[in-house]
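dumping the sequnces here before i forget
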Amino acid sequence: MKILVIGKGGREHALVWKLSQSRGVEKIYCAPGNAGIAQIAEIVPIPIDNLAALADFAADKKIDLTVVGPELPLTLGIVDIFEQKGLRIFGPDKAAAEIEGSKAFAKDFMQRYHIPTASSRIFSNHMDALDFVSTVSYPLVIKADGLAAGKGTIIVTSPEEAKASVVNIMVDKVFGQAGERLLVEEFLQGEEVTVMALTDGERVIPMVSAQDHKRIFDSDKGPNTGGMGAYAPTHVISDKMMKRITEEILEPTVSGLAEMGRLYKGVLYTGIIVTDRGPKVLEYNCRFGDPETQAVLPLLETDLVEIFSDIADGYLNIDEIKWKDQSCVCVVLASRGYPETHENGIVIEGLENIKGKDNFVFHAGTTRKDGKIVTNGGRVLGVTTTDHTLKGAIGKVYETIQQITFDGMQYRHDIGMRAVKIDSSYF
Ligand code: AMP
Ligand code: GLY
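..and the predicted 3d for all of it:
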């Protein structure tokens, strides 16, 4: 079997790595990939949004299965284009991917199908939004409607801050078109978890839960990022809570979309806050999470190619998905200045020292220059370790990180630690 993976982050490295272990995989291509992916797959220099070129490539190379990492090609309709050409692809089509592409659509959808979420109001006129935020209690959350590279959500604690955000988003258009509509949302208190589910549009199988660490600095300080680290499974989601999430959130989401004529095939990502009134959806994504996927896939036992092929064919025929009875932690090593800015081209040292079957270094922003692996993005590497306990995995992952260095390298020292009630001085 020949497989094409689309994307270039740590998530895609984890996907390529896991897929490469499947029986019957003859070759994996990755567009556009990174320096780590290049060690196990053939790199194809096609950008993720050049859908026509990707489809031509898949047809030309007789690719048996394409797996899409990021949301952009999905929301642009890559699945529709591939399927029209008779090419097998894992992911939701354009209509189903709108669950991530528009927050307003997702909110309307949740209200219609009684899926628990924060209460909210949608505005398409900035004057109405400004009036509204003068009358409500704080904190609350302001969100640009469209895709804003993870930066379109602002938690505000006063009417002044709220008004400034409304003006930034709707008048000054700092997120461009994404700010044409705006959501004002209730602030939810509780632990935030990620539950990703595999679905063929009818059957829904949740994966082990994960917890991301979105803020740049230790103890959840500083601005939001794409995610600075994750662990899986989480302490927050018991079997009973997972059953509740499946019945109250995942299944009604997939069946609701199907009822609207939007058959969802692929992985459905739900960002959930477990409040004292139960689990509530913060956001949907139409793809695997990053870095969550780097912490989840090392625990997977079932053959991933089999799962993806079944779903691409529209019929998930597997009895159950099996997981290792272990914990996994992924710590992101980021460039100086991330999430605002970053420098590229800085040599990364020590990668060759990483040993041990439980340690993985997933590459995100890396490339090769003059024979050396150099930085090429804000999030550079995802150092990942599995162990029988979460505490053990955390200890090992921070030991592994000591082997790697590049100028400006920054990372959080507390990934997963709140879950085991230890602080970073322990290690
Ligand atoms: P989003 O842009 O929707 O992915 O949100 C980014 C982050 O903001 C989330 O991961 C949460 O940590 C936080 N957040 C978003 N909405 C809410 C909310 N209604 N209540 C509390 N925190 C929120
Ligand atoms: N780590 C959050 C996301 O993938 O959206």
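The pocket of glycine (ligand 2) is lined by residues 212, 227, 285, 289-290, 292 (CB under 6 Å).
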